[in-house]
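Revision sheet: structure tokens.
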Amino acid sequence: MFDRNVGGTDRLARIGLGSVLVFVGTAVALALERPLVGAAVALFGAGMLASGVARRCLVNELLGLDTAE
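Predicted:
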């Protein structure tokens, strides 16, 4: 149905960076009491993490990029 367009190093980078951003966003929202900034960072990280796990990125599709192996 949907072809994969994320793979290899791109996938690992998305999963790693997405995880870090979710953690940092949550920490900023809770510890520094900046809920909007923290939520924005965490949501961006969650999107990166989801695209890495699903091996599918809509931005890559719109730009015509394919990093899948």
